[in-house]
């Protein structure tokens, strides 16, 4: 449980730091993440000042460690004894992959975004679509994990709801 607590603290500190650091960028980074075209990407970055663009570039120094920490945290939360103990072994095995896969999608999205802002010319349209899809997959996986966590938490709080199941 100690490793889980450390990972939770690390992910929280990194997230809060990144959110505070990028809070002044408008439109915000989540809006940029969910663009699926060159026009959408450039529409948002075109509204940013040079300082905002530099801040966006530097935020990856926090974002990459953050995605590693939340991926590891999600895995650890599922395999460690805790709120997910009432799930079957097979379900826990699949759920243990959800946040690591979200982190992988986040990393793919980040690499695309770094490439887009470093490139001297626009990139193929499919690359912007792939970056948007990576971000969408990341967010859907994160939401799925949160829903699974809340569901497991509610079930474990019920009388008799915390038993182990094997599959």
The total count of helices amounts to 7
Q: H/E order of the elements?
A: HHHHHHH
Relative helix content: over 70%
Structural class category: mainly alpha
pLDDT below 50 for ≥5 consecutive residues: which ranges?
A: none
Shape: elongated
Please tell me the overall pLDDT: 94
Major beta sheet summary: none
Q: Distance between the terminal alpha carbons, to the nearest Å?
A: 24 Å
- Whole-number total of structural domains: 1
- Give the tally of β-strands: 0
Question: How much beta, percentage-wise?
Answer: under 5%
Radius of gyration: 18 Å
Kindly summarize this structure in a few lines.
By secondary structure, the chain is mostly helical. It contains seven helices and no strands.
Description:
With 167 residues, the chain is mainly alpha-helical. It has one domain. Helices cover 76% and strands 0% of the residues. The protein contains seven helices and no strands. α4 runs antiparallel to α6. The longest helix has 33 residues. The radius of gyration is 18 Å and the shape is elongated. The two termini are 24 Å apart. The relative contact order is 0.15. The model has no long low-confidence stretch (mean pLDDT 94).
How would you summarize the topology of this molecule?
Layout: H1 2-22, H2 29-33, H3 38-47, H4 50-79, H5 89-95, H6 98-118, H7 125-157
Question: What structural keywords apply?
Answer:
elongated, 7 helices, single chain, 76% helix, mainly alpha, 167 residues
């Amino acid at each position: 449980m100690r490793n889980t607590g450390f990972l939770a603290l690390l992910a929280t500190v990194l997230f809060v730091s990144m959110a505070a650091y990028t809070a002044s960028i408008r439109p915000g980074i989540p809006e940029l993440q969910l663009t699926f075209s060159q026009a959408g990407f450039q529409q948002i970055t075109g509204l940013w000042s040079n300082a905002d663009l530099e801040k966006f570039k530097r935020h990856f120094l926090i974002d990459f460690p953050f995605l590693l920490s939340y991926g590891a945290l999600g895995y650890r939360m599922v395999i460690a004894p805790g709120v997910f103990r009432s799930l079957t072994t097979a379900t826990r095995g699949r759920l243990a992959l959800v946040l690591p896969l979200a982190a992988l999608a986040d990393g793919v999205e980040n690499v695309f975004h770094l490439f887009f802002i470093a490139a001297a010319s626009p990139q193929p349209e499919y690359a912007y679509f792939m970056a948007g899809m990576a971000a969408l997959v990341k967010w859907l996986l994160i939401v799925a994990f949160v829903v699974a966590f809340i569901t497991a938490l509610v079930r474990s709080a019920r009388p008799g709801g915390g038993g182990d199941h094997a599959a």
